Amino acid sequence: MNLIQYEHIKELISLQREHCVSIYIPTTYVAVDYTKNSSRLKNMLNRADEMLEAQGVRKSGRDELLETGWAHLKNIFFQQRQKLGLAMFLSDGFARSLKLPVECEETVIVSGHFYLKPLLKLVSGNGRYFLLAVSKHEVKLYQGSRFTLAELNPEKMPRGMNEALRIDKPESGFQYHSAASGGPAGKMPVIYHGQGYGSGNDRTQEKKNLLRFFRRIDRALNDWITSKKIPLVLAAVDYLHPLYTEANTYPSMLKEGIDGNPAHMQRQELMQRAWDIVGPVFRQTEELLLDEFDELKHTERTSYDIRDILRAAFEGRVQRLGVVDGIHEWGVVQPDTNHIEIHAQQQAGDVDLYDEAMLQSLRQSADVLLLDKGRMPDGAGAVAVYRY
């Protein structure tokens, strides 16, 4: 079982089958009383079985779909090592369980795709960023949100300055190596020597090699990250920040960074300090959506009607979408006929229309945000700005 990462969301968004079971439960951590986890999961699996039966799935098919979930009930290790919530996704030939760093409501939904709105609040457009932690001896890239920080492993990313300078073509007449001993705190000191290179040039030469090191990091970063709109926060000792900025070509790196050696910081501290920087940036993204909606609200480029938003999402016209966190609107969507039916209560085969709008918009590369209800105009559940 995994901690949630954006790659999981993309995988789940892309999967559409006849029967997709989505289960969310709040959980108790470790030995406090993990039997509650078993009881909640058992109840949700029983409800999923009933929903599948109501949709005409035979018992053998239901047992096969829910097999992984029932197996987890017998796994004490699985039950004990939870965080605040659990999400489980089951379908024909597919099973995924994710630990959630926030509490969630007990929910079970069976439809043609997975129900993902509770996950989107963790990695939505107003919450995802990259954190680059750099020192001379270590380079780490993380993907973060308000509640998560997961380490990534980009191809071609140098692990440290030694590796970067060995791979890079050396400058003419210049050699680089590490001494076997004598560095502070047991670390190997860097030694430079070459033609016409005296001690008075040490600082200039070190700057050149740091820039070479940082340019290798920058190339690896840009080759690996496809969406250049996601903010990047740099964590490094203070004198490295201006040098990395000089080498940087990633367009969304923030001017403000984290000062200090990231190797000496716990991941929780890195996550909190990064959020202190990116949080205000994301609030500006929310303001952009709401200001644009207000400016265009008397034109055909905006809507807060979920039926209209859904049709636009299926047509790929949604540019920005804001949805109130924690609300539902149940119904049926038939994209081929443009028929959308809203139900007062959830019925068998229903989908959450807000979740459907978010998923379809994300598939079309729209900016999707989850907003507090108090920020929405006219008490709307969703607002959209269209491309045309």
Strand order of the largest sheet: 1-4-3-2-5
Q: Poorly predicted ranges (pLDDT <50, ≥5 residues)?
A: 170-199
Protein structure class? alpha+beta
- How many strand segments? 19
Percent of sequence in beta strands: 25-35%
Overall pLDDT, averaged?
84
* Overall 3D form: globular
Tally of contiguous helical segments? 12
Question: What's the end-to-end separation, in Å?
Answer: 42 Å
Notes on the structure:
- By secondary structure, the protein is α+β, with helices and mostly antiparallel strands.
- Helices cover 37% and strands 25% of the residues.
- It is built from twelve helices and 19 strands.
- It has helices at 6-14, 35-54, 59-65, 67-73, 76-80, 117-123, 161-167, 202-224, 240-247, 267-296, 306-314, 353-363, and strands at residues 2-3, 16-26, 85-91, 94-100, 107-113, 129-134, 139-144, 149-152, 174-178, 190-194, 232-236, 258-259, 302-303, 318-324, 330-334, 339-343, 351-352, 367-371, 382-386.
- The strands form five sheets. A five-stranded mixed β-sheet has the order 1-4-3-2-5.
- Strand 3 (85-91) and strand 4 form a beta hairpin.
- Helix 8 crosses helix 9 (240-247) and helix 11 (306-314) packs parallel to helix 12.
- The longest helix is centred in the C-terminal third of the chain and has 30 residues, at 267-296.
- It starts with a strand and ends with a strand.
Q: Could you write a compact summary of the structure shown?
A:
The chain is of the alpha+beta class and 388 residues long.
Topology of helices and strands:
Blueprint: E1 2-3, H1 6-14, E2 16-26, H2 35-54, H3 59-65, H4 67-73, H5 76-80, E3 85-91, E4 94-100, E5 107-113, H6 117-123, E6 129-134, E7 139-144, E8 149-152, H7 161-167, E9 174-178, E10 190-194, H8 202-224, E11 232-236, H9 240-247, E12 258-259, H10 267-296, E13 302-303, H11 306-314, E14 318-324, E15 330-334, E16 339-343, E17 351-352, H12 353-363, E18 367-371, E19 382-386
Parallel strand pairs: 1-4, 6-11, 11-12, 14-18
Antiparallel strand pairs: 2-3, 2-5, 3-4, 6-7, 7-8, 9-10, 13-19, 14-19, 15-16, 15-17
